[in-house]
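Work Package 3 (structural annotation) set out to generate three-dimensional models for the target panel prioritized at the project kickoff. During this period the team completed the workflow that converts sequence records into discrete structure tokens, so that structures can be stored uniformly alongside our sequence database. As a representative example, we reproduce one entry of 317 residues exactly as it appears in the project archive.
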Amino acid sequence: MAIAKAERLMNLALCLLGTRRPLSKRELRGSIEAYLEAGSDDSFNRMFERDKDDLRELGLVIETVENLDGEVGYLAGRDSNRLPPVTLDAEEAAALGLAAKVWQQARLAGAASGALQKLRAAGMPEEMDPYESHGALEPRIPAHEASFEPLMLACRDRRPVVFDYRKATAARPEQRHVEPWALECWRGHWYLAGFDRDRQAERVFRLSRITGKVRSRAGQFKARVPDVVTVRETVASWAGETADRSALIRLRAGAGYPLRAKAASVRELGDGWDEVEIPYGHGLDAWLVEFGPDVVVLEPAELRADVVDRLRAVAKG
């Protein structure tokens, strides 16, 4: 079975690398014997999708192109799949090996393990074990949202997606058509940056607010992908990181440590509450809502009203 699969993958890779124009699924099925022997269209489709994903995991860059008739074709350009020799010194190899430790979860664990094997072949010392504990603190990037993996793959493959998204101020989710650019982890939450086709503008989406499944769509991106997608900076600005004003809140004693870390001043009020002055910028209301009953906004009045509106929307939803 393993030999048959390896031969099938090799034949598919040769077909995709040897063509000058995109080949459709129908053409690929007619060119590869194992696909011709597939019992049904569904069986072939499942086999082809698995093989395509496996080749991409191995590093083959497969382009998806849609012709004028709407038929999707595939090819692997030789220029896109030609790499210079990889050379790493011991320190560089060790740093990349330790970085792989961050991704010890779900599908990423297998990719990280495969990358480490390639690093060892490139010169990482065998005695360097990146999975060995080197201290009390270890890097971790949790990704518990079901939408993380399909969005990660969509960003990698440049595939448009559709998902239902509920804003903090909305009682019900609404469908969004997005060209995904990049994922970013900020303050323990994952965010997606991309082009919202319905609004014809760049948008940032918090993954925990995506409901239901993320569905991929055929076709190419319509908007230009920026060279550098600064998701972290965008989200930070929405959360008041670049604020030039201040807000005064009541904060329950022993709670809200991220807010206390940003505080310009903290004053004990007694009865289990403190008065905290924090920077105020666009999006601070969404952040304060996350702390629930541990936070009460004192001023300004517009921030208090925004927080109340968001809490009411959450209560209705």
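The mean pLDDT is 81.
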